[in-house]
Structures are given as structure tokens and as C-alpha cells.
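re: that chain from earlier
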Amino acid sequence: MDKNLMIPDGTVFEERAIVTKGQTDVIVGDHAQLHYGVITQGRMFMGSRAIVTGNVEVGDDIRIDSWSSIDGDVSGGRDVHLGERVGIDGCLSVGRDLDVGDDVQLKGGFEAHGWINIRDPVPLVIYLFIYLIDLLGMGRGKEVEEILLELEEEDEDILVGNDFLLIPANAVVGLEHSTIPGGGAVGEDCKLLGNYSIGGPLTIGVDTSVYGTVRVTGDATLGPGSLIYGDLWSDGNVSLGEGARVEGEVKAQGVEMYRSTVIKGEIRASWVRIHPSETRVAIEKLEQYPNPNIEGML
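^ sequence. v structure.
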């Protein structure tokens, strides 16, 4: 689970920054490289030796583990926690308290409106998060609930919200090319830029657009109205929802699609299954019964 790219509904990849919707938490895993800035009203967590290239604007807390770096300005609306040997090339602006470990480098200076603590913060956020999502992946939701209840009883903040964006450990996400060690789950109404190599199955939600070529190890599922402005290659099966569109070729073991699906390039597959549109199926069912107002109902 911790190897998978997870992008929530409404996320937009702009040329220089990833912009999330609402109170979305952003997690950048260990050794990951994110060649975008980040704009979110939620919180941001970075694992160890992670790299972010671009400015970071966060409405809530920021927690950065040891040896990680941000090549740009950083603005946190509340508390900022920096582990040992963290480097920030731009200016750091802190809405409340600043907590720093040993040998932190702030090349552009900093401004804090609360307490400044110089010590070694305990960087457990990413690891607790990964542990919890692994438990969920194994169907052990009851244990997760018990852990969260214990945190609440100890007056601790819940570390990760319901909506989060996860750049997994060892992933590279950039404007030209992105490499994900595991699979991917992209929500609805998102916009992604660049070419993607996905090391597992991929699911893309309704009305989401990807402006680049996508290569998938495993099955790929595109929701209704989704768009890939490039090729879609998979070593498994590809399922394209009603009204989905691929501007390039589709290469897979098998392809399942609707009559309303549009593929501009060639289809290279062992088998292709084409379904009638859902609207057409509804009409055919209604036509079995005498009803003079069928057209007005649809």
C-alpha cells in the first residue's frame, strides 16, 4: 500500500505546483522526489531524504523528516517541525511555532510568530501513517479504529485526514516523467501532467485528465468521461468507461470499452469487448413496455 500513488478528488497539477482541494493532507514518502511545488489548505508530511522542488504553501502544520530538502520558499499556516539536517533553499514562514533539529539549513532565513524550539523532533508521522494504511489493506479496520481512539484519549491530533495525497517512497513525480514503484489511484475531476510509469494496477476516476502517456504494470481502469492525452499501455487488461477518451494508441492483453468510448490511435490487444452505452441499455429495457413518453424521460 505504501508503494501506491494516491491522488484525491479535485487535485490539479499545474506547471509548477500541485494544488489540492480543501483540507487535503500531502504526504511525500522516504527518498521520494517531487519536482513540483505544493499548495494545500491541509497539512504536509515529508519522510526522510525526500526532495521537493518548488514553493510550498500549507495552511496547517508541516512536518519534515531528517535529511530532506525543499528547493523553494516554504509557508506553514501553523506549526513547522524540521528534523535533523533538513535544508530549505528559500525563505521559511511559520504561522505559529517552529521546532527544529540539529544542523538545519534555512538559506533564505525564516519568520516565526510563535515559539522557536531547537531540538530533535521525533519523526514518526510517516511511519505511523504507513502502518495504519497497511492494516486497512489487510482488512484489519477494527485495529485501526482502536489505535485512533487511543490517540484521541491521549489528546493527540489525528495524524492524517480522510483526504490525502500520497507520493510513495522512492517515487519520482515530475512534469516530464513520473515513476511509481507500485500502483495508482486517481480520484475524480483531477488534472495530471506528464508521462507516467506505474508499477502496479491503475484506477482513474470520473472526468479526470492525464496529459501524457501512461504505462501500467497490471490492469488499468478509466472512469466515465476520463481522458488520456497520449498512449495507454498495459501488460494487463484495460477497461474504459463510457465517454472515456484516449488520444493515442491502446496496447493491452484485452480491452473493454463502450460504444461512446473514443480511441484515436490503434488498439493492440488479444481481445476487445464493446458494450452498448448505459443510456442505450436503459432505452432497450424501457422499450419492452408500452410508454409513449420514453424520449421525454431520457
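The CA atoms of residues 47 and 126 lie 6 Å apart.
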